What we know:
The protein is of the alpha/beta class. It has helices at residues 13-24, 32-44, 52-60, 75-84, 88-102, 115-119, 133-146, 154-173, 195-210; strands at 2-6, 28-30, 108-112, 125-130, 186-189. 54% of the residues lie in helices and 11% in strands.
Amino acid sequence: xxxxxxxxxxxxxxxxxxxxxxxxxxxxxxxxxxxxxxxxxxxxxxxxxxxxxxxxxxxxxxxxxxxxxxxxxxxxxxxxxxxxxxxxxxxxxxxxxxxxxxxxxxxxxxxxxxxxxxxxxxxxxxxxxxxxxxxxxxxxxxxxxxxxxxxxxxxxxxxxxxxxxxxxxxxxxxxxxxxxxxxxxxxxxxxxxxxxxxxxxxxxxxxxxxx
Length: 211
């Protein structure tokens, strides 16, 4: 069984993907880490994020085993990922890796921006997880404050909201594999849901598709 979970930044899709993967004992891939990895390597080596040729070359040689999820959760890595993910050659370079993960024996759970539309259009279950921009900004803000990456101020929250808006625009407006809702996806709005409520709703949606 392949479960495809898409949605914008800080919508809760990653948390739901991990919980669903644990429930069904399936491997999980946060595809955003691939783009974060490419973006962080670009930053570490001093390459401009808009250099498509170098970004694509890095993507072609990316190894999942080399990705440190914790180090790639920073605000800077997320912003870099949003930029390099808009490059068509980068997305194409990572396509086979993601599809191979999805096609492994027994199935898998993948979350990202184009799983149900591009990576695994034949997935048995598809979810599109969303929330209001304000709620997504609050979630990301609390995460950043908790890690000591930003001050706990109204100005910092406003800056995070602006970042969310920019990422939404890039994700939805790019020419190659934009963020869209797959025609056969179940949309789950988590704005007013707690984690357990959202997990229950997501599992119910997957079970409905399985039946």
